[in-house]
Amino acid sequence: MKIKSFIYFIVGVSALDVGCAQSTTIVIAPSLKRAASVQLAEQLVKPSTLEESQISEEVRNPFDPSADIKVEIKSGRPGSDKELLELLAEQIRPTGVMGRDDSLILLSKGQKGVKVHDKLTLFFDGTAFEVELSAIDRNNFSLRYNQAQITRPIKPGKNP
What is the pLDDT of residue 160? Predict the structure, then answer.
């Protein structure tokens, strides 16, 4: 009984396959709603003429070797170490100091305490820079990068 139903199934599937193979082209006329879309598609598919594809004289052709090229490359890095150090110092937001006068530790939110002469790795424009904490007192801290040095208040607005 199972073989009979299997044979009927195979015959039915092959009959559907033959029926689908006979109707290979289907033509659907565009309805009124799609008429605008079809018209736009026909315009987009139509090849452009030579006049339409020419570029105006104001636009510089990047593939023309004789074109006058003025390239100005600007570095994202500041001009001097002092300017770079000012930008790097903005990343440090100290909350206070801890310890005695001879061994102060700079405290910062989300970071461990930093002592004098410790090196900090700060990032600017995707590049890592190693900055040294050169001095700490009760109200200020100083950073050094190469020969540049900068002093910042520990709590902005409360610097005497």
Answer: 47
